[in-house]
Design goal:
This protein is an alpha/beta fold.
Length: 248
Amino acid sequence: MNSLSEGLKELKLKAFAKHYEKMAQKCESSNQAFIEYLEELVNLELELRHHQKISRLIKLAKLPRKKSLKNFDITRIKGLSKTLIQTLAKGEFIEKHENILIFGNPGTGKTHLAIALAEEWCISGYKVFFITAAALMQELLKAKSELKLNQYIKKIDKYEMLIIDDISYIPCSKEESDVLFNLLSQRYEMKSCLITSNIAFSKWSQIFKDEVTTAAVIDRLIHHANILELNATSYRIENAKNLNKFLK
């Protein structure tokens, strides 16, 4: 017969295995009821599993770096509601399969905000996947060439939130715009997307080249969307100016 420690490990009750002896001693010394002893161990186990789940979700999200809402200076963005950002961070809109579209000049914090929100959603238990538009396009075209496009889209479909960063940097051929349209169409009203772009919808024909496809993509994205405009000067330009002042 396995020892208690071995049995707990085999059952994958890691917190139980780590803390049961110390908690038992505490229980005896304080005349704690046995049921309270078990409750404390169960709470420790649940807390450990919660943190492990968050770690798995963040790893699964493939976030390129760590960013937080705390370090996002919302006061720089004229007209951007702090209350709206806090509401979106809770992720309830994901249950309704709504989208977020973030527009703004380079350096205004679009990617920072996207990553920070993604981390909040992971903490809330949502499955998130972050990818640049260029990388996504390569993956879609590769899957299509291997006759595995539907399989790749199904793989992406397991994520409740798909973040496509910097869509403005990919002038698409007809073949490329078709595979991206296919992906977005299948997520329409089924799963959520967050897309960042440096250019307004009125110029998206520069990306897709085909006006019909452009209109169809925009129509699906904005139907259930929260649109955030980051109208501000570049963080990087401001920092460079401040550095130059300091060096003079």
